[in-house]
Specification:
Elements (H helix, E strand, L loop, with lengths): L6 H31 L2 E10 L5 E12 L3 E3 L5 H7 L2 H21 L6 E5 L9 H13 L6 E6 H6 L1 H13 L4 E6 L16 E4 L1 H4 L6 H16 L3 E4 L5 H9 L4 E2 L10 H12 L12
Parallel strand pairs: 2-4, 4-5, 5-6, 6-7, 7-8, 8-9
Antiparallel strand pairs: 1-2, 1-9, 2-3
Helix pairs in contact: 3-4
Bound molecules: ligand C2E and magnesium ion (3 copies).
The site of one magnesium ion has 5 residues, from strand 6.
């Protein structure tokens, strides 16, 4: 292609490539410093029980308070973290901070809940995850049942044999495991019954099409039925509208997460949300509505 377009095209393409790799080199070196300097933050998004509208959990989502570029989301740095292996220490920090935050909220007398943390495939090598998890909950003094881990469907099926051993160890500790972005992995469903998984998070791309898209409706409906048949809870991701939530309620999905209920916010704002809930402001209850 480059040849057909002549020499100038090659030069331009090359310049783009070089700019892209310089950019990722810069992110890599800055991210090391960010970890050392404590520039990473966790934001928390509520996970809501559809029947009651109550917040029963939170997902911890990493952010980078960059000194020049402001607050960055995972899209700006997680790929570089993955490809360089930096996601391993980053993931260790996320587990530790999530456990600490859970303990702080407990100490503040806020409603007990579960915290979900995203774990990268890179953390699954050897005993890294087991060690990171153990030191996170031990240091914070929080019960392992409270800190759930999320693994994407891709991550889970990539190396099922190794993962199975690791996941069984975690399950022995009472750790809840969720499959993230379910439906995007293009994998055989047969593996599901072998994995010690407690929750299935239906990817936002299927929830997007509700209520209009018949195909998305069929996929979400099938995923909910299958999860329930296998004894798993369902979390619908990316719920933005009341109409989507109504469909999910009709399908008996128990949990949901999305902008309709709340965007990811910092710890202080999330605590305020929990306090407002305790003060019995009527939450956005979906399934009990007429
Ligand atoms: P995820 O685990 O599937 O997290 C859900 C993402 O969807 C979050 O994006 C969240 O802000 C976004 N979201 C939630 N509700 C809605 C909604 O109603 N509409 C729309 N349009 N989006 C919604 P975020 O925070 O940018 O994170 C993106 C991805 O980055 C996460 O996807 C996860 O795969 C990864 N990630 C986040 N934190 C970590 C981390 O600590 N470690 C690792 N390894 N990956 C992380
Ligand atoms: Mg997740
Ligand atoms: Mg997801
Ligand atoms: Mg995702």
């Amino acid at each position: 292609r480059a040849k057909a377009n002549g020499k100038n095209q090659v030069v331009v393409f090359d310049a783009h490539l070089r700019a892209a790799s310089e950019q990722s080199l810069r992110i890599e070196s800055e991210l090391w410093l960010a970890l050392e300097r404590g520039e990473l933050r966790l934001f928390y998004q509520p996970i809501v029980e559809l029947a009651s509208g109550r917040t029963v959990g939170a997902e911890a989502l990493v952010r980078w308070q960059h000194p020049q570029r402001g607050l960055l989301g995972p899209a700006d740095f997680i790929d570089v973290a993955e490809s360089t292996g930096l996601v391993v220490p980053l993931g260790g920090w996320v587990l530790a901070e999530a456990a600490r935050q859970l303990a702080r909220w407990d100490a503040d007398g806020l409603a007990p809940m579960q915290m979900a943390v995203n774990v990268s495939a890179r953390q699954l090598g050897g005993d890294v995850l087991l060690q990171q998890y153990r030191s996170a909950v031990d240091a914070a003094g929080c019960a392992p049942q409270r800190l759930e881990i999320e693994l994407t469907e891709h991550t889970l099926v990539d190396n099922v044999d190794v993962n199975l051993r690791l996941l069984n160890r975690l399950r022995d500790w009472g750790v809840s495991i969720a499959i993230d972005d379910f439906g995007t992995g293009l994998s055989s469903l047969a593996y599901l019954k072998h994995l010690p998984v407690n929750k299935l998070k239906i990817d936002r791309s299927f929830v997007d099409g509700l209520p209009g898209d018949a195909g998305d409706h069929a996929i979400v409906s099938a995923a909910v039925s299958m999860a329930h048949a296998l004894g798993m809870q369902v979390v619908a991701e990316g719920v933005e509208t009341r109409a989507q939530a109504d469909v999910l309620c009709g399908l008996h999905a128990s949990l949901a997460q999305g902008w309709l209920f709340g965007r990811p916010v910092d710890a202080q704002a999330f605590a305020q949300r929990l306090r407002d809930q305790d003060a019995a402001q009527s939450p956005l209850s979906i399934c009990t509505a007429a």
